[in-house]
């Protein structure tokens, strides 16, 4: 939806046609959060407790998701002359950054190890979620500079991809959550 809003506004049922591909991390995150929030609130459980539990292992999904992107030859990087640059079938004869593998290592492996270590200490509910949003959002924002954007994607301000814009929202949300964790707001509403 985020990358082709005009199409999906004209064809809203296509949003749920997941068998056709085209899914993005950000759309999956928003859908999962909304579904989880509704279920958790209906069952009178703590949304932030569950979110903290889930984000510790979320990088495992990111790891395997990026491996899948690499195997499929999608979401490849910009041209590169580095010795580990790879020629992707859909990317033409030019060697490119294997951005999927960079993301696999940093947003998958590193972020998992970092989040896993956070579980050793008691934190206010929502802290791990906030840290995940900030760290993943920052790493993904930076990797977008190396990724070859699809020609159909519009750039914000002439340089920022939709992925980067959505990552900024994640980062800001994480920072705001950390701020509100100090307040009674969390206990009252989340």
Automatic annotation (TrEMBL):
The keyword Ligase does not apply. The gene is lgt. NCBIfam families: lgt. The keyword Repeat does not apply. One of its GO terms (molecular function) is phosphatidylglycerol-prolipoprotein diacylglyceryl transferase activity. One of its GO terms (cellular component) is plasma membrane. It comes from Thermodesulfobacterium geofontis. One of its GO terms (biological process) is lipoprotein biosynthetic process. InterPro entries: Lgt. Belongs to the Lgt family. This is Prolipoprotein diacylglyceryl transferase.
